[in-house]
Amino acid sequence: MRRFLLLYATERGQAKAIAEEISEKAVAYGFSADLHCISESHKYDLKTETAPLVVVVSTTGNGDLPDTARKFVKAIQDKTLPSDFFAHLWYGLLGLGDSEYTYFCNGGKIIDKRLQELGAQRFYDTGHADDCVGLELVVEPWINGLWAALAKHFLLSRGKEEMNGTLTMASDASRRTDPVTQELLHIESQVGLLSLDDSRRKDAEVLEQNAVNRGQSKTLTADFEPSLTRSIPPLSQASLSIPALPPEYLQVHLEESFGQEQSQAPVTSVDPIFHVPISKAVQLTMNDAIKTTLLIELDISKTDFSYQPGDAFNVICPNSDSEVQHLLQRLQLTDRREHCVVLNIKADTKKKGAALPQHIPEKCSLQFLLTWCLEIRAVPKKAFLRALVDHTGDGAEKRRLQELCSRQGAADYSRFVRDSRACLLDLLLAFPSCRPPLGLLLEHLPKLQPRPYSCASSSLFHPGKLHFIFNIVEFWSDTTVVALRKGVCTGWLATLVESVLQPNTHASRADGEKALAPEISISPRATNFFHLPNDPSVPIIMVGPGTGIAPFIGFLQHREKLQEHHPDGHFGAMWLFFGCRHKDRDYLFREELRHFLKCGILTHLKVSFSRDAPVGEEEAPAKYVQDSIQRHSKQVARVLLQENGHVYVCGGQCCQCQIQAEGLDAALNNGGEVRCANICTNI
Q: How many C-beta neighbours within 10 Å does residue 462 have?
């Protein structure tokens, strides 16, 4: 078989899953994939690699490389490497990202750019898949086109080798039709066809299906709307192209523990882990605010956890207990929830390089596994839906699952699965005859990830304490039954602090009312770019709507202490653009900001209220943060262009374009610096 090297750089497992899919499909097209994590540099050598290279790279945070890719990128960014270091290398790269973040697919772009700089050449165009609209919209056609591109590459390579023959042989070849050329022309035509709309073939399939089912079509076209569980023509009558069945590879046994000690610690990729008590919890918003925002204070005084303003950290959280119980009930495993989970690789599996999931600890109970180890809220991928098909008994339900994972059903998958945030439990409730084995769920459910939060305090201002804030996420799920769901982590935290929660008065409870402080587990997640300038005289502009204000409270607290310690020091101006809906409902840290303004720590405070109506004859206030920036664009441009200031942007959908849209492109290009923190605090 024709071999190619397949590397993946993953943070949450998506890049790995896609690379494994490529590896499994390769055999059917006559290729053999040599699959490795990009961090396993001892298993491959790009300096001597002669086979084509395929790379799948994810992006984490605000454009950061996955941890698994850092060593690789550091090695290839060695400035002593010659420009032809990879001149022998041909590659194709697929980048994964989310366009809601500023530096979309930046992990893939960094590697792609550096490979080009070192002389590597693409045999296949780079793909950028967007998780915001659905990775599969790019991933599936990119993989489909990969085989033709690889075939073309191997044919060209073979043709070049044959060109090394004698002149006589070359002359003879010119008088005949070269089979390599013929095959190459065929491959090129197939590559072209991959980018064409196959609507004519689909139309033919629909017509053929209509001819077979003409007598039934009238009833099928009854007036009803499509849903998660049913489709309408033409999809309901179409011939389907469904993905290949992923090979099963896990064998699961549930054993009674008989009093044996079981693991109660989730396996995390982050280290170290700190177990810290919650010393205070305050509701920052009024009860009639649209969103409820909480501040939590952690006592880190008995640990060596340290942080700087602008840093972030991870909270290790569990799944909802009620959802875990419902899932156990649906799987008919409630009476075995305390059994120990024992995993093995199936002896007859066809999965290449099958390995036990590293995020599942040994000797843990089924209850613990579903609570702390697996992301049961994850939106099922099409490969998961395809696997569920073979464990569904009802014919209509089986057909609908086939539609949802098919190429023809892409729109329905987007609407009823991805956009509706359907999860495994939703699917099992929607398709009652679907009874998957536990091993299948462990193969397809991703690892439960820790949730990142921005530090909202300074250790100089609050020694031994760490603050963070978040909105309690609530959303309606109507995939099967209409229900109000809360964010996995924010919902858990809100429940956890109910006994110690204070209203927005900053008053402490009386000693008699003091409740037992709950503990949570956290880990550091330091950033190297979202810190205050080393030179305190540099002016800074902070843009933080909503909970995006979190790191800037830490900045202001830190600056206040620095000015106390260095009263004769020179400190630059600090601007803050903050926005919320209502002045009297969700104006976060109002009193603190007034204090910083009064003390001269904060030199300019510009607040926008998007839902409040203007009062009296006063000038209409800026409605949104970007409106406020536009009103003060001259001052902002001066800070950037003339004073070499820094702009910091933080929010749920942090985007540099908000600033660029106000005519500040020149400021961004010719002076100053913009730094974005895209820590999602609402999941």
A: 15
Domain that holds residue 591: 540-681
pLDDT for the residue 386:
95
SS3 263: coil
Q: Which two tokens stand for residue 215?
A: 């007598």
Q: For 197-242, list the strands marked E by DSSP.
A: none
In a domain, 97, yes or no: yes
- Residue 391 near residue 436 (C-beta atoms within 8 A): yes
Each residue's pLDDT tens digit, 227-285:
999 999 999 999 999 988 888 999 999 999 766 655 556 666 556 999 999 999 999 99
Query: CB count, 10 Å around CB of 14?
Result: 19
Most confidently predicted of 55-64, 538-547, 608-617: 538-547
DSSP per-residue string spanning 480-494: SS-EEEE-HHHHHHH
pLDDT score for 187: 43
Pairing of strands 274-283, 519-525: antiparallel
The span from the CA of 457 to the CA of 558, in Å, is: 8
How big is the chain by its Cα radius of gyration, in Å? 29
Average pLDDT over residues 356-378: 94
Q: Is 62 within 8 Å of 102 (Cβ atoms)? A: yes
Q: Which two tokens stand for residue 379?
A: 């939106």
At which of 131, 159, 187 does a domain end? 159
For the cut 60, the answer to whether the pLDDT of residue 165 exceeds it is no
Neighbouring-strand partners of residue 579: 608
The most distant pair of C-alpha atoms in the chain lies apart, rounded to whole Å, by: 102
CA dist 115 to 10, 83, 89, 124, Å? 19, 10, 9, 14
Q: Which of 137, 159, 181 is the last residue of a domain?
A: 159
* Per-residue tokens: 60: 């984490």
How many domains would you assign to the chain?
A: 2
Q: What span, in angstroms and rounded, lies between the C-alpha atoms of 25 and 31? A: 9
> Is the pTM higher than 0.85?
no
- Which amino acid belongs to residue 210? N
Whether the Cβ atoms of residue 631 and residue 575 lie closer than 8 Å to each other: no
Beta-carbon contacts of residue 596 (< 8 Å; ≥ 6 apart)? 556, 560, 602
Residue 338 CB: number of other CB atoms within 10 A? 13
With respect to residue 173, please indicate whether it lies within any of the assigned structural domains: no
How far is 509 from 82, CA to CA, in rounded Å?
66
Residue 124 lies in a domain: yes
CATH number reported for the structural domain that contains residue 79 in this entry: 3.40.50.360
| Cβ contacts of 11 within 8 Å, gap of 6 or more | 58, 60, 66, 67, 68
> Measured between alpha carbons, how far is 218 from 409 in angstroms, rounded to an integer?
21
Q: Name the nearest CA neighbour of 380 among 330, 475, 445, 451.
A: 445
Is the pLDDT at 655 greater than 60? The verdict is no
Q: Read off the pLDDT of residues 305-324 as tens digits, 9 standing for 90 and up.
A: 999 999 999 999 999 999 99
Residues composing the chain: 683
Give which of 70, 108, 77, 79 is closest to 91, Cα–Cα. 108
Q: Please indicate, yes or no, if residue 62 is contained in any of the structural domains.
A: yes
Give the count of beta carbons closer than 10 Å to the beta carbon of residue 451: 22
| 8 A C-beta contact, residue 455 and residue 311 | yes
Q: What's the rounded Cα separation, in Å, for the pair 478 and 416?
A: 10
